[in-house]
Specification:
By secondary structure, the chain is an all-alpha fold. Helix 2 packs parallel to helix 5. Helix content is about 70%, strand content about 0%.
């Protein structure tokens, strides 16, 4: 449902196909689900909190930055996942 709401935002590029518009929101939700599984302790609940994500995206939308906030959040989550994996020694294990 959240991805559908994000697709209601106007595309950055006119006549952008739907699959291209849906990519960043789907990746964002997927990254949140994955990180909730690797983050230790009570912090994992924050990654699965859809209300928190909705509030953050609503604030970005109110500021007119929604089209930029979704990909930026995805990049930040990828960096966090790599950092957590590297810190635990899982990223380079043979």
């Amino acid at each position: 449902m959240l991805v559908g709401v994000l697709l209601a935002a106007p595309p950055l590029v006119p006549a952008e196909p739907l699959w291209s518009q849906a990519f960043a929101p789907v990746v964002l939700v997927g990254l949140l689900r994955l990180l909730a599984r690797i983050v230790p302790g009570r912090i994992a609940a924050w990654f699965e909190d859809r209300l928190l994500l909705t509030a953050a995206l609503a604030a970005a939308g109110a500021a007119g930055l929604l089209a930029y906030a979704v990909p930026a959040a995805g990049i930040a989550l990828i960096a966090a996942g790599i950092g957590l994996s590297w810190r635990r020694g899982e990223i380079t294990s043979a």
